[in-house]
Amino acid sequence: MRRWKQWVQSLAMEEVGTAWPAEIVPYRAGIRGGLAGGGVMVGIALAYGLLSGRGIWFPVNLIGAVLIRELQGAPPEVLARFHLPALLARLLIHGLLSALLGALYGLILPTLPGSPLAWAVIVGPLLWLAATFAILPIFNPVMAPYVDWPSFALAHVAYGLTMGFIVARAARRPGGSHGSAP
User: Fold this and answer.
1) CA separation (Å) from 71 to 58, 75, 114, 146, 147?
2) What is the pLDDT of residue 34?
3) 176: left (phi over 0), alpha (psi -120 to 50) or beta
4) Residue 46 and residue 29: Cα distance in Å, rounded?
5) Mean pLDDT estimate for the chain
6) What share of the chain is helix, strand, coil (3-state, %, to 5)?
7) Counting CB atoms within 10 angstroms of each CB, which of 15, 44, 60, 104 has the fewest?
8) 3-state class (DSSP) for residue 141
9) Residue 13's pLDDT band (boundaries 50, 70, 90)?
10) Whole-model pTM above 0.90?
11) What's the confidence (pLDDT) of residue 179?
12) What is the pLDDT of residue 16?
């Protein structure tokens, strides 16, 4: 209880900002990096669909099935066909998650020591995997058997590298002792 009290007291207004880094990354850079990384992930997923023989719509429909309930129990033959609602759902889900996770990376990057690209290879896939393991079992438990984990992992590393490259190249802003939120 005492530790909790100390932690709450450390959040008092006069102490807010003392932990801000000297430089911060604009959140827009994280969003741009996240969207670019998400685009690279899509390319890898489509390549997987072609190389696996399941077709380009298979990975699209797997993601879209998070929101499109009738696809959740569908056999692979159905998932291999074009479904406009699944495409639109995939664009929404993947676009929002890519942008959100990129912005989150941009926010935490200034607090991490060392190379931004090294952290991108670690943090990018970890953020995606955490989102996947938190969201997938709740919204689409049927998808798990269809996930090709090697291509899934490759796509996440590519996301991290792409996002990290763009965020690392972004101009920094001063954070200061009472720096403004990015």
Assistant:
1) 11, 8, 44, 13, 15
2) 93
3) left
4) 26
5) 80
6) 70, 0, 25
7) 15
8) coil
9) very low
10) no
11) 43
12) 46
